[in-house]
Amino acid sequence: MAATTSNMLALGTKAPFFELENPLSEQNENLENLKGEKGTLVVFMSNHCPFVQHIIDKLVELHEDYSQEGIEIIGINSNSVEVSPEDSPEKMLDFIKERNISFPYLYDESQVVAKAYQAACTPDFYLFDDKLDLVYRGQLDDSRPGNHKEVTGEDMIIAFENLLAGQPQEELQLPSMGCSIKWKA
């Protein structure tokens, strides 16, 4: 399992707008309608990636804890189904049900959104403030499949708490690591 690290989009970058299919509702949903009142975490993820499977329960828990505080989470799957059939919209529905995912999990079939965010891996995290300016990009925590560290969500919790308190973010932001996005040929 070769690991890829995130590209670390420049802080202050405006969240690129998107409108993508939600396989659950079979409707298109967009960033403007889904964003949180105080912040929005955009996560590039996939169904089959061991790195995503390793952290998904914590991500669901963070959504339960922070959505009522005004921070919304939006998952986006940008993997090519030709390269990775287990990431099809139909399989996304299974993953949503199996893992009790309560946040929107959208499908980026064209991969335009992943390219706009310079996403490189799954999971790849981008936290935006209420004005949709990027304030944190990096890892959820330092747990990885097989490294025997507990999944705590510590780095993201610090970023969420700093955002809610109006405090500056940590200067050291470590890149996320995961499976590479499966790009179309």
Describe this structure in words.
This protein is of the alpha+beta class. The protein has one domain: Glutaredoxin (3-Layer(aba) Sandwich). The protein contains 5 helices and 10 strands; from the N terminus they run E-E-E-H-E-H-E-H-E-H-E-E-E-H-E. The chain has helices spanning 31-34, 50-66, 89-98, 112-117, 154-165, and strands at 4-5, 19-22, 27-30, 39-44, 71-77, 105-107, 121-122, 124-129, 134-137, 177-180. Strands 6-5-4-8-9 form a 5-stranded mixed sheet. A 3-stranded antiparallel sheet has the order 1-10-7. Strand 8 (124-129) and strand 9 form a beta hairpin. The mean pLDDT is 96.
Q: Terminal Cα separation, in Å?
A: 21 Å
Summarize the main sheet.
Answer: 5 strands, mixed
Strand share of the residues? 15-25%
Kindly name the structural category.
alpha+beta
Bin the helical content: 25-40%
Provide the low-confidence segments as ranges: none
- Specify the overall morphology: globular
CATH homologous superfamily annotation? Glutaredoxin
Instruction: Please give the CATH class.
Output: Alpha Beta
Number of domains: 1
Overall strand count: 10
Q: What's the Cα radius of gyration?
A: 15 Å
Following the backbone from N to C, one meets helices and strands in this order, namely EEEHEHEHEHEEEHE
How many helices? The count is 5
What is the CATH architecture term? 3-Layer(aba) Sandwich
Q: Give the spatial strand order of the biggest sheet.
A: 6-5-4-8-9
